[in-house]
Amino acid sequence: MKNLYKGILTGVILAAVSSFSFAENDPLVGKWKTIDDRTGYSRADVEISKKPDGTYEGIIVETRNVPGTEKMVICTNCPGNLKNKPFIGLPFIWGFKQNPDNPREFNNGRVLDPIGGKVYKGKARLSSNGKRLTIRGFVGVSVIGRSVTWIKH
């Protein structure tokens, strides 16, 4: 009987510890490889972090050129204070908030198209295994927009 209680107590402790470590290991936070939906090539790596206000922000940490094109280093088409800033360190997505009803969905964000220079409303969804992130940038309603999928490093 003593072993049974010890086994139950061990199980409860392990369950509590694993739930704490999952909470600390936010699946959205980390480095993501962007995939251009038009060319199929990876154009950049983005580091997503969670800010103190609970929103998520992604900063470009590496860029790549599409074969046959020059590597872009400055955001010449970006709006406002982002204009003519280097791509490295540029905020690419920001303001995303986790949906309390579905922890794999993130809404109310903004997405920068650094090539076209426009900022769009955004939403995102993590795959069930946390290895793919589908981001949708749109104007007005989500039906008018495009989606891209990123792969976690």
TrEMBL record:
Entry keyword set: Signal
Q: Which organism is it from?
A: Acinetobacter kookii
PANTHER family this protein is in? BLL5882 PROTEIN (PTHR36919:SF3), BLR1215 PROTEIN (PTHR36919)
Upper lineage: Bacteria, Pseudomonadati, Pseudomonadota, Gammaproteobacteria, Moraxellales
The cross-references to Gene3D superfamilies, in alphabetical order and at most eight, read: 2.40.128.520
Listed name of the protein: Uncharacterized conserved protein, DUF2147 family
Signal sequence span per UniProt?
1-23
Ranges where the DUF2147 domain occurs: 30-151
Q: Does the keyword S-adenosyl-L-methionine apply?
A: no
